[in-house]
Amino acid sequence: MFAIEVNELIKQYGTFSALKGVSFSINKGECFGLLGPNGAGKTTLIRILTTLLKSTSGKATMMGIEVGKDNTGVRKLIGVVPQAMTSDLDLTGLENMDIYARFYNMPKKDRKARIDDLLERVGLRDRRNDLVATYSGGMRRRLEIAKGLVHKPAILILDEPTIGLDPQSRHVVWDLLTNLRKEDTLTILLTTHYMEEAEFLCERIAIIDHGEIVAIDTLEGLKKVIPTKDIVEIVIKGTAGERLIEDIKSLPMVRSIIFADGKLRISVENGAQAIPLLLDKIETSGGKATSILLKQQTLEDVFIHFTGRPIREEEARKVNFLIGAGLPQKMGR
Amino acid sequence: MTRLLAVVERDLRRFVRNPIVILSSIVMPLLYLIILGSSFQGTLKNLPIAVVNMDNGPQSIRVMERLQALEAGPGYIKVSRESDQGKAVEGIKNGRYKGALILPHDFSRNILKGNRGEIGLFLDNTETIASETIRNVVTAGMSNIEVKFIPVRERNARAIVRYIELYKKVDYDQSLIPGIVIMAIFLGTLTTGAFNTVMDKFLGLDESYLLTPLSKRDIVLGLVISGVIITTTIAITVLFLGSFISGIHLWNILSPVALLSAIIIIILSILGLIGMMFVILGRANHPRIVGVLGGFLNVIFFFPSGAIYPTDSFPGWLKMFAKIDPETYSVHALKTILFKGENLTAIRGDLIFLTIFALITLTIATLTYKREL
Ligand SMILES: Nc1ncnc2c1ncn2[C@@H]1O[C@H](COP(=O)(O)OP(=O)(O)OP(=O)(O)O)[C@@H](O)[C@H]1O
Ligand SMILES: [Mg+2]
Q1: What's the whole-model pTM score?
Q2: Which domain range does residue B136 map to?
Q3: Pairing state of beta strands A4-13 and A57-62?
Q4: B235/chain A closest Cα distance in angstroms
Q5: Residues lining ligand 1, CB < 6 A?
Q6: ipTM of the complex
Q7: Which CATH number applies to A227-296?
């Protein structure tokens, strides 16, 4: 049984299709990343999986429980960190956590220990009795993550969990998630815009664009497919002979090579691993490298390859100019 | 149960962190009491009227004496003499007089002959309450003394006399108390219950608890319970402070049974109004909608309820509306308990209506609560 199984999920907003038949499955204990530009349908997908929205058609199951059939069953199973911040500003961090845990019927004893532990891990224990209104954006986000974990969910779903966090806090969150996965079988589904995040946390990644999954694989697998490889630029003394160029071309990870202005420009599969081999070849041919530059493939490259646009392209939300956001969502947007 | 209580606690904690809201829910109805109580008092005394006596016969002199007695006694009117009708009517037009009394030249003669003695009464119709008061005061005053002669119909006269009593200062202030308690209840139910769901939607906080195993019932009932706790506290505070301001020491005159009855009425009214707010505002997602609707709803439920003006004088269609306005029953029940010293059986009808209203609105509220985004 898969932890999450999604089959031909479709979501229509009026005539607009936010999801056009999405299918994938996530193994138990796996960390699965969902990448896509703004407006791709990530949040819509997550809201359907977490019972917040009804899909137009299609089927999704969480640990075998069908979403839409037994929503309470699904809700007990999952912990969710929504994209927007949802903690109560008028309550303290601790009150937020405690009340949230009681929504899950957690007994008092378990609550206390779990909340203490989580607040410690996200670095908010000292501030637990302060109103959330006094927290910084990053602190509030870390509280959101702790909140989503309070009832020890089997599946954790995070919608851009580290957005707005400084690199240090981001590492706090990554370590927290990594440690939790070591302690328990925890299945994670997360959306992110950060390459390092997907690389650090996820076993597999799906790229979603315009409501469709355009690629799904391990990060390495995705990188292999795209033509833009890592680029290694090596400046050498003198010129490179035919021999050297042929030698380098014969290396299995090398895709192409150009020599111009005393500079070798080599497109390789994995730049970091290729550099020592390349230097070897240069040395045995009697040449000498004076400087090396490695341009690694980025998630941006992967993105542009699969979606044809950069990862952050803002798309204005359509709000009716007359009634604004003031009417029921269906009519107002 | 744990879940429900957690919803209640979340809401209560958030509310007490906003003491200014609680304070204004208490202070505003009290200010209303003070302003309304004293402003009606002001307009209802010393209303200037002109008298044109073209008769000067014995009967007209008795009328004049009577008017002077009304002026000197309760002081509702202030009488000035004018020489002719044209001047008197002119005085009404330019606002010097609120009314003019014309005694025709054959007034005494007609009465002596056993015919009807007719007095002309000009009123400034633009000042509804003032002109109504003058009509009542004058006709009632005349009828008391000259029943034999002045052809004021008995039925009218009696109804009018009651109005005059209502407007005596102390009575009027006190008669407003049930009304301002209901107003406090309205404000309380407007800013608790459904309003929290509107704010949560607006701030995007609803997502967090919709993700949890909380049921529709947990969410709605939890908000209703916290709303009842908060609003009952406010309403009872307003009841006691309002009574104190208008000179009644409730804690002396209210028996424990009466107090309990009052609390039952208050809680039933709150339940109904909170349910109604959920039905009306349940799908709203911007606080501005609550602002606009709140002001409107307050007016349309408050004024026809009999809180400041007796429902008897309404036109038919408004009486119909008053009949389905829950505040009418709350006001009537509270007046009966507080002022007539009656017990629960006297307000059985009110209690039945309020209970049914609460059950219906709360059921609709729970069923229609949208437990998704
Ligand atoms: N209530 C709604 N009514 C109509 N269209 C909507 C509604 N909610 C979302 N959409 C549209 O559906 C599409 C997908 O939105 P969604 O929020 O899922 O994107 P996303 O991938 O999460 O983007 P981001 O990275 O910006 O968070 C967008 O084009 C959006 O405008
Ligand atoms: Mg999103």
Answers
A1: 0.76
A2: 47-165
A3: antiparallel
A4: 24
A5: A 13, 16, 18, 36, 38-44, 83, 315, 317, 329, 333
A6: 0.79
A7: 3.30.70.100
